[in-house]
């Protein structure tokens, strides 16, 4: 018994969509990422997130309680506390700090690698 396969007929729109997908796949960057966040900045953000978490826990607040208090969603607070959000806005950090009765201080320095955020 011979096996038969039926050729799938594609519409011009489907063919164009597949061509765009193939082009996007071929343009993916394979080497090192050029716009990666420097490790020092990642460590600072993790340290800041940890400090915010410690302050929240010291005040016996859950992430859900803090989120409700400042009008944010709980997963956003979790990502910041874990240092997973590598680009939090100052507005977001200020909202979290204000919800904890604190404020964020930003120091401008001549040394870009020594930026510090203090809660």
Concise overview:
By secondary structure, this protein is mainly α.
What does this structure look like?
- This protein is mostly helical and 119 residues long.
- Helix content is 52%, strand content 3%.
- Strands 1-2 form a two-stranded antiparallel sheet.
- The termini are far apart.
- The model has no long low-confidence stretch (mean pLDDT 83).
Can you tag this structure with a few keywords?
two-stranded antiparallel ribbon, mainly alpha, elongated, 2 strands, 119 residues, 434 Repressor (Amino-terminal Domain), 5 helices
User: By helix and strand content, what is the structural category?
Assistant: mainly alpha
Helix content: 40-55%
Strand order of the largest sheet: 1-2
Number of DSSP strands?
A: 2
Question: What are the SSEs and their pairings?
Answer:
Elements: H1 12-26, H2 39-58, H3 63-70, H4 74-82, H5 90-99, E1 105-106, E2 117-118
Antiparallel strand pairs: 1-2
Helix pairs in contact: 2-4, 3-4, 3-5
């Amino acid at each position: 018994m011979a096996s038969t396969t039926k050729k799938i007929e594609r519409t011009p729109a489907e063919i164009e969509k597949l061509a765009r997908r193939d082009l996007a796949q071929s343009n993916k960057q394979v080497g090192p990422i050029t716009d990666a966040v420097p490790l020092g900045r990642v460590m600072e953000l993790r340290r800041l997130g940890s400090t915010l978490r410690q302050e929240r826990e010291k005040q016996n607040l859950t992430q859900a309680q803090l989120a409700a208090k400042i009008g944010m969603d709980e997963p956003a607070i979790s990502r910041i506390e874990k240092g997973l959000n590598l680009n939090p806005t100052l507005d977001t950090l200020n909202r979290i700090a204000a919800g904890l009765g604190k404020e964020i201080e930003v120091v401008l320095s001549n040394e870009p690698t020594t930026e510090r955020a203090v809660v």
